[in-house]
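Hi,

Apologies if this is the wrong queue. I'm a grad student, and the batch job for Methylated-DNA--protein-cysteine methyltransferase from Paenibacillus silvae produced an output file that my downstream script rejects. I'm not sure whether the problem is my script or the file. Here is the sequence I used:
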Amino acid sequence: MISAELKKQYYTALVAKDSEYEGLFYVGVKTTGVFCRPTCPARKPKFENCEFYETAEQALLASFRPCQRCRPLSHPNHVSDVVRMLVEAVEKEPEKRWKAQDFRALSIDESTARRQFKKRFGMTFVAYARARRMGLALKHIRSGRTVIDSQLSTGYESSSGFRDAFSRIMGAAPTQVNEERVLKAAWIDTRLGPMMAVADEQALYLLEFVDRRGLEREVERLRKRTRSAIVPGTTAPIQSIERELTEYFDGQRTTFDTALFCLGTPFQKQVWDALLAIPAGETRSYQEIANAVGKPGAYRAVAQANGANQLAIVIPCHRVINSSGELGGYGGGLTRKDWLLKHEKQNKDSSSSITE
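Support response: The file is valid. Your script probably expects a header line. Output copied below for reference.
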């Protein structure tokens, strides 16, 4: 997790094109959809338009594509012809599933490609190609349009290519909509960035920032535990939480009324109930939550349950901090956690002033 202080440090290095930071971070530019290395010669984006990642794979999974000027998937000093050819090939057909004959067509040995990518970038070529497809799949489902509309608008020549990209992030093929249980997934734009909401017609199952690390694993666990197909679309709970989030960010709401479906152990649900009891504008330590659930020695387990919460903001895990007063961790990033706490405290103080 990259702290707020480190993000500022990285941004300073980005503006200065500091070569000492090469390989330490990559920056995703939200306004262009590309990610760059620290020394990219392109015009520098504003800080608020930057997302920082420790690896190129994280940037790819967040749907950013490699910058064509600084080529972040190439070593700053040298890159082999094998790596260069494969990176260019993937960018020409990012949705492609690579097979043995594709390597032979380029006169490239598969084991050589795997070894050189791993040595240079810390991930295999297959991992890179998969991450690129997954990033595309994220974009396909953001609009909540029908599967066929998404397929045609993105230029897929065959439905099989789209189904593969879709299934790699959602865990179920789009055609599996006739299963007994179906959950809908939609993107919700918020002041702090887009969020993914997953729900059926009765309740909200998941609400996470789309750039949260491991989101695809969360979706996969949800699909397996509910034995559901997850497809793009919207439901009444998704429409409800979208409206309530707008009110929350506008300072008009501190609690949420959308029905929730919490998948967790009895202990996790006990912790989440304790989180819901924390008033907006206030915080509790992990130890205080452990005391509240009657298990004062289980503060580490409380921290784990806090991190397992799949309903960001609605179940306010951001209101739990370290006993020292430090922010601690947060799946959506410490910058967002700090903003949420300040936002809620400001609204609480404003409400108190009006009451007085």
